[in-house]
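User: Can you recover a sequence for this backbone? Please restate the input before giving your answer.

Assistant: Of course. Working from this structure:
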């Protein structure tokens, strides 16, 4: 098939022919219609993480049409329009429900195995949800990783309607997903960004306040959602009220932060981490998307122009998800 791939890491993506991926037992092959970028697309070029083998096809977020079925698949039919849960788990792990994603056999589509920035993508049949028919291919390719991660964090934090939430770095994919979801759940949502026009856009989208990410943030909140790490940690942590929750799903500015222990225990704070989500959570989120949860798409770019999409992400010019539109022949 034709795909974007890495031959080494650190390294840069090329486009060309790679071995056709074929579905094994209980797997399906999807003709990809849309795949979205994540910061992972950039991490993979730096060697952090390094893909397990080369060539490697990136792309964590995948939506498309079932094109062929492996032996034993009865739950899907050729031509079904589907969206893929990025956190791939062994069949036996599914019985663990929301904890299935903690299985040591969990693999991330596009990181530990080939992802969606090519013609076809092969995944276990139990990883799919039907595409909500009213939503565009770009919208459905935008929600799997980010909205499922945000939902897992909110579920674990027991987020309640009426609570206040601060989302850092609103330009990011996972940040915009958390923003939309928190609003949808009835929360008052504040944001940060380095970019004045993004702060303004967030206000237009209903943010209760928008602050420069360099801080300080003149607000006290119940919950913070952060994917940036050290560049904002101290300011973000200070905004939490007593009993607040710090939700962490990334460290774009670095892997380590300084934790102020008296602030943690005197204020009785919780720090909660999450990486992607289980099939149960993905199905819940797919239901919310079917019911109209807003999904913020920044730009739809032809698959052939992946390098331009990567530049946009690297330079943080986006607000929301950058999506690659695949040829539909
Ligand atoms: N755990 C998971 O399941 C999961 C899921 C998705 C993503 N992630 C992780 O979460 C992070 C974000 O991913 P993404 O795909 O949403 O990234 P992204 O779309 O590239 O967005 C990153 C945003 O973070 C802000 N930012 C980056 N560097 C910054 C710095 N030095 N100082 C202040 N703000 C900074 C910027 O916001 P502004 O432009 O508004 O300033 C930027 O737009 C990554 O580390 C990724 O690996 C984890």
């Amino acid at each position: 098939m034709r795909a974007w791939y890495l031959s080494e890491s650190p390294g840069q993506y090329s486009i060309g022919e790679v071995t056709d991926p074929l579905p094994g037992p209980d797997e399906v092959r999807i003709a990809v219609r849309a795949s979205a970028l994540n910061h992972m697309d950039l991490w993979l070029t730096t060697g952090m993480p390094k893909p397990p083998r080369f060539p490697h096809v990136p792309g964590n977020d995948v939506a498309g049409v079932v094109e062929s079925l492996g032996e034993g698949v009865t739950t899907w039919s050729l031509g079904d329009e589907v969206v893929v849960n990025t956190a791939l788990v062994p069949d036996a792990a599914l019985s663990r429900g929301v904890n299935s994603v903690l299985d040591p056999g969990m693999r991330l589509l596009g990181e530990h195995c080939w992802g969606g920035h090519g013609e076809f993508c092969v995944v276990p049949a139990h990883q799919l949800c039907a595409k909500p028919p009213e939503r565009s291919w770009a919208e459905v390719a935008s929600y799997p990783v980010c909205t499922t991660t945000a939902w897992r964090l909110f579920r674990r934090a027991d987020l309640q309607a009426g609570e206040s939430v601060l989302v850092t770095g609103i330009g990011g994919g996972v940040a915009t997903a958390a923003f939309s979801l928190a609003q949808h759940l009835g929360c008052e949502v504040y944001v940060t960004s380095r970019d004045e026009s993004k702060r303004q856009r967030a206000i237009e989208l209903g943010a209760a306040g928008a602050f420069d990410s360099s801080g300080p943030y003149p607000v006290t909140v119940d919950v913070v959602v952060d994917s940036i790490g050290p560049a904002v940690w101290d300011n973000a942590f200070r905004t939490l009220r007593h009993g607040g929750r710090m939700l962490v799903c990334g460290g774009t500015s670095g892997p380590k932060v300084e934790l102020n222990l008296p602030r943690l225990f005197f204020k009785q704070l919780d720090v909660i981490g999450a990486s992607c989500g289980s099939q149960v959570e993905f199905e819940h989120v797919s239901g919310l998307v079917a019911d109209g949860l807003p999904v913020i798409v920044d730009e739809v770019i032809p698959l052939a122009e992946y390098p331009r999409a990567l530049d946009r992400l690297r330079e943080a010019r986006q607000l929301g998800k950058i999506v690659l539109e695949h040829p539909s022949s």
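That completes the design. The first strand starts at residue 2 and ends at 6.
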